[in-house]
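Appendix B. One record, verbatim.
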Amino acid sequence: MAAKLVEIGKFDSLKQKVILEPNSKNINQKAITLSLALGVVLMLIKFFAYFLTNSTAILTDASESVVNVAAAAFALYSIYISNRPKDRNHPYGHGKIEFFSSGLEGTMIILAGLLMIIPAVYSFLEKSPITEINNGIWLVLITMFINGILGYYLISVGNRNDSIALKADGKHLLVDSFSSAALVVGLLLVKWTGQSYIDGVLALILAVFIIYNGVKILRKSVSGLMDELDEDTFKTLLEILNNNRKESWIDVHNLRVQKYGADIHVDCHLTLPYYLSLEDAHTQVGLFEDMVESNYPFEVEVFIHSDPCIPECCHYCQVKNCPVRKEEFTGIKKWTRNRILSNAKHFVE
């Protein structure tokens, strides 16, 4: 669901606040429920195609569909849990369960790929003819198109609502669609050449491809659970800060940003003129928090530690007619990655 821009009352320099439409979480649940239902149907179609053709490559593709169904079931549960509000025992919400969901999906994909190698190798030792190959190709084509459309839909919804579980499931289905396309090409080669060993070779290639994509999904999940800096999230936040900078915000440092599902937690040190009263400093902190929150279509929690400026800050401080300036203003120091992540004011390079 696309975010809406709504005008809010004047709050100093803030003019707009971005919010999600209220049913976005329901859309996530409906999307993953659709994935689960179609996954069961497609799994049955693929196993039917295997029993028709006796193709090891189709068995490999069908076995991965079992993973699709199991992963979609857990993703449905994780989205249900992640939608719960914060509570005393979960002060940051329940969003991180989506990392567990994508991690489980990645692990299951890897295990499925490893198990798929066994029948592929066995097919070289115990050769069996492939039957009704035309019907098998048509059935695989049907599943390929449905998986491709569904995968694209899940990624689209996941990107709009920043759902990690939806994006992981969608990418998995797109991979499944690509592997089905390769499977169709392989079956056509078997049909045209009459060489049944191509089926076993294709099964091995698909197994390796599946394992590789499982590792990628698992890696993304682990990075989220370990609170690794999400580069896309950080770049977006850095752009927001530079575009909305106020002259009294002398510098921002020791910034940390973490994702909890769709929600984001930000904490940082904000350097302010040391002569501001506690009330004025609190007002500036509030403006900073509201500026950050107003630029996101989902919940953002901002914690700020205010620092007093020191004389070494004067040469890049933008405050006009400062009554205590010790050095002439020489130019703005752009808030860059190194400066904003460093636990030091910006006069320390």
